[in-house]
Amino acid sequence: MFSELSVLGVLFSPFVAMMAVAWLITMPLIMLGNRIGLSRVVWHPALFTLAIYVIVLSLTVLTMGARS
Fold this sequence. Notes:
Helix content: 55-70%
Number of helices: 2
Distance between the termini: 6 Å
Structural class: mainly alpha
Number of strands: 2
């Protein structure tokens, strides 16, 4: 079970922290994909970026959930 995070007296859902972690993991992946030219091959680069973020976020939630 996840518990809320207290930051300066304000309670945040642990999902907010997981979203930030997923974003920090996704950004280097997207930069790597751009460097090798992946964005020219995919149909819609913005949707591809969103899909990668959702996959990384799902893996982050599953990983952090397994630790609890």
